[in-house]
Write a structure and sequence with these properties.
Strand content: 5-15%
Oligomer: single chain
Largest sheet: 2 strands, parallel
Helix content: 25-40%
Number of strands: 2
Number of helices: 3
Mean pLDDT: 78
Strand order of the largest sheet: 1-2
Shape: globular
Length: 121
Amino acid sequence: MTPTARLPLLFLDVDGPLIPFGASQPYPTYETGPENPGARENPLLARINPQHGPRLTALPCELVRATTWMEDANTWVAPRIGWVAVHHPGPALLHRVEPRQGLRDSDYAVLDSWLRRRAGV
């Protein structure tokens, strides 16, 4: 990829992909450290698997939040997964994540494959 080439954008929602919902059984919860950002304000934040951060940042793309969480995504979600996004024009892949399950290995495989094809990797 040339220095002036731009990476594809990955628009990622919070509800469903990062915070699964709607299943009949309980979801696993994750601690993020002694401060556990936002736990009192929104107990659903405990469903965010911090391992999503490294996996998302390893994809050959730039992450952009596409969520109704607005500024709360910066305040409560970003610290849990190390999320930093820069917005610019670029190719797009629309991929639905099953909200009852959240991001799974198969979702990462689809994203990684598409992004690597776009990047010529």
